[in-house]
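Re-run with default settings, no changes from the original entry. Doing this only to confirm the output is reproducible before filing.
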Amino acid sequence: MSSVFVHPITSDDDHLHQYVQFGIDLYRNNPYYVPPLVFDEIATLSPDKNPASDFCESQSFMAFRNGEPVGTITAIINRAANEKTGRRQMRFGFVNFVDDAEVVDELFAAVEEWGRCRGMTEIVGPMGFSDLDQEGMLIEGFEEDGTMATIYNYPYYPEHMVRMGYEKDADWIEYRITVPPEVPEKHARIAEIVARKYNLSVKKYTSRSKIKAEYGRAIFELVNDAYKDLYGYVALTDRQIEHYIAQYIGVLRLEDVSLVIDGEGTLVALGIAMPSLSQALRKGRGKLFPFGWYHLLRAIGGHTDVVDLLLVAVRPDYQSKGVNALIFADLIPRFAASGYKFAESNVELEGNENVQKQWEYFERRQHRRRRAFRKML
């Protein structure tokens, strides 16, 4: 008889706080892990707070041994994704566990059975409710500094996935890019030609409320259009867009936001970056109080030498036309002036050659790889 007990948990804040805190405690002494903001993670896992619950069904589980938590996992059925693909696929995400085969087996058995009872025939993950959640299990780069936008996990995680019969479904790679002191000559030349040929320009803001009012919705509508054919992507709904406008745009460092517009003021491309919050989140251990807010404010103010490239999106009819060069021509001098030495690309699909080609004129190294695993139920 197993000594591990897996329980479905309710979505009240106390249970979800214990769920989130388990993951943070598991990495207490790991120098590469970046904890989430606890309140933000709880909101994501709460159906009444996450607008993705309009089209997602989910259940979080915790594993215990002798009354102590030893693992967490969330089962998700994204109905919009299944309607798009015609598959009966469930996702697992927000997964953490100790290095113990019995724990892992019981944890995944609970999730898989939950999916089978709802007619699902396959499981994939780690993935979230939407593409803006963290996704992909780290399989290379365990001794590289993590980022707030990506999952960090111990090397034993993918070993257990393979042991249980899970196979590769998709891989993402990441680059650490050296920020040049000035715009590479080729980028500058391409930016000038493209701007003139297509009547494009870069729009900058100094007011968060103004960028929200004028382009808040357009930013996420462009993301929907640009990312629509990517692995696992499901278009953000109106309620999600409003949620993300309120959640993210208010904390952006506007110097690190580049909006490319056409002659009529229509948004055709964007680049959104943010000073790395990794060290700040570690210092606060995922909490704003008593001092976490101070560390985050300092990081958002630019007191770091690393910048995270959160979103780069180009409208499909402008892709492969060199429009990215306008974004880099705008951001590189600002990055250099802010003291950024390195940029983190964050995740990009290994087969997305158009995205990877944009780094070819920069000094860079591919330092992390992560994977979505799949198994038939």
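DSSP finds twelve helices and 14 strands in the chain. The longest strand covers residues 364-376.
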